[in-house]
Amino acid sequence: MIEVIYILWLRQLKHYWRSKARLIGSLGQPLLFMVAFGFGFGPMYTRASGGANYMDFLAPGIVAMSILFTAIFSGLEVIWDRQFGFLKETLVAPISRTEIMLGKTFGGATIAIIQGLVVLCLTYLLGFRISSLSSLALGMTFMFLIAIFFTGLGLAIASMMKDMQGFQLIMNFLIMPIFFLSGALFPLENLPSAIYFISRIDPLTYGVDGMRGALAGMSVFGIHNDFAIMFILSVLVCIIGAFLFSRVEA
After folding, report:
1. What is the pLDDT of residue 21?
2. Would the pLDDT of 182 be above 70?
3. Range of the domain at 49
4. Which residues, in sequence order, are CB contacts of 148 under 8 Å at separation 6+?
5. Is 68 exposed, middle or buried (0-12, 13-18, 19+ CB in 10 A)?
6. Which of 13, 226, 215, 12 is nearest to 121 (CA)?
7. What is the pLDDT of residue 49?
8. pLDDT of residue 87
9. How many independent structural domains does the chain possess?
10. Could you tell me if residue 250 is inside a domain?
11. Residue 174: inside a domain, yes or no?
């Protein structure tokens, strides 16, 4: 089982490494958000918060955004594999579909974490600093949970679809509300009650809050609560994804 998962994981990493344009192109949006929001809204945030640095607040949210986009669109590989016949060859192999699902999930999550780490390094150029190695280790734990959850979600949705354009439309419909309502760009305090309720049921909210608490010491809900919620959701989405993938027809 471990060997199968490893091979599928390695296949996705090789695809990622061979596509240098994918790595470089995926940095454009995070950089735009960091520069535009960091320098545009930074002074207003500093005045409103009594002198706090907006980049310390913003950087974990942008890292989470990078992981979110990379992870959830990993489901595209399932549709590509179906269209080019590789998925059929994989499904008829003497391996379980759960192993296939786990291999693809870990592969997509690893790529998303790499993207997140690259963006995290870029935040240093804009003034963000991590206090200690233990904070970085805890932050990477939340990066892993965010990557696993949204990779599993993307694969689960892709397993039910055969149309690539339809998958992209659905993902765009989901991604933007998930990102903007997660508190990645602005504090959740003092929001209208309806918006605050939606933010509380957004899974990314707890990933961003946990990462912000680990890297910048600014957790709202508590790091332990964030970890418990993200861990449970990640396990659930993998179980659901494995069930849906077991019903895939190439």
Report:
1. 67
2. yes
3. 2-245
4. 105, 106, 109, 234, 237, 238
5. buried
6. 215
7. 67
8. 67
9. 1
10. no
11. yes
